[in-house]
Amino acid sequence: MAMETSLQQEAKDDHLLLWILVWSELIAFGILILGFLVVSTFDAEAFELARLHLRPGIAGANTLVLLVSGYFVAVAMRNRLDLEAVKRPLVIAALLGFCFVAVKLFEYWGEVRFAADATLDTFFELYFIITGFHLLHVAFGAIALLLVAWRPARENLVLIATLWHVIDLVWLVIFPILYLA
Amino acid sequence: MTRRQHEELVGVLAMLMTFAIGGAIVAALAGPTIVPIAAVLGIAFAKGRLVILDFLELRGGHHPMRIALICWLSIILIAALSRSLVVLLLA
């Protein structure tokens, strides 16, 4: 009985730590995005000009990749009672994560030269900081998905699935703000 | 995972894909006026809400994180809409 209570308390503590981690990410991204919005308000013309150099079609396709990846992580979570059944969806989700990283790097390849342009540099500095920070999260998350797929444990699955969906959520906010609106 | 859960999840993915493609089309076809910008941000809210409710499994019950996450989403998107309004008013 005492051991059961101790295990329940441990699970609660894990959950609290998970949400603290999630909120530290959301606050960090929130500050970056709000900073971008404030700077873009005062330098609206240069930001509109800089935005013309982005390729929203590629970023839109990447959004679809991340959404499908999120779907496979959700499938893994629904299968969490059978740990053997979570492996395949997690591997697919991780591969889609790496696909997102590859597409984003390809996108950067065409954009990096604008960072040196005196008129466009403020936009592109903020753009590379926000999307680069997000990209690192995707790369790290994809590696973690593979590790959990290799040695699945329910607590780790809940942790990485929640973080992956939050990374997904952050991109859904970044995409329209940086590229479209 | 039951057959029903699988069908629900596929339905959510289909809605997310539709919103994503719809948002991109609205943004590509419309100019920098407030209505399409509001539409794109509204679509982003709809997508984010689906991820929070269905992918993060916060739809059922009274999970405080559901409200907190939707608030975060709303604050950022309202700030983006306000920024567009201010820029258009000052132009």
TrEMBL record, chain A:
Family: Belongs to the cytochrome c oxidase subunit 3 family.
UniProt xrefs under Pfam families: COX3
Presence of the UniProt keyword Nucleus in the record: no
Protein known as: Cytochrome c oxidase subunit 3
SUPFAM superfamilies: Cytochrome c oxidase subunit III-like (SSF81452)
Keywords: Membrane, Transmembrane, Transmembrane helix
Topology within the bilayer: Multi-pass membrane protein
Coiled-coil stretches: none
Residue ranges annotated for the Heme-copper oxidase subunit III family profile domain, each copy included: 18-181
Cited InterPro entries: Cyt_c/ubiquinol_Oxase_su3, Cyt_c_oxidase-like_su3, Cyt_c_oxidase_su3-like_sf, Cyt_c_oxidase_su3_a-hlx
Localization: Cell membrane; Membrane
Ranges annotated as spanning the membrane: 16-38, 58-77, 89-106, 126-150, 157-179
TrEMBL record, chain B:
Keyword Iron-sulfur set for record: no
Topology with respect to the bilayer: Multi-pass membrane protein
Protein origin, superkingdom: Bacteria
Residues annotated as transmembrane: 12-31, 68-90
Localization in the cell: Cell membrane
Keywords, ordered alphabetically: Cell membrane, Membrane, Transmembrane, Transmembrane helix
Pfam families: COX4_pro
Database matches in InterPro entries: Cyt_c_oxidase_su4_prok (IPR005171)
Principal location: membrane
Name of the protein this chain belongs to: Cytochrome c oxidase subunit IV
Protein source organism: Mycoplana rhizolycopersici
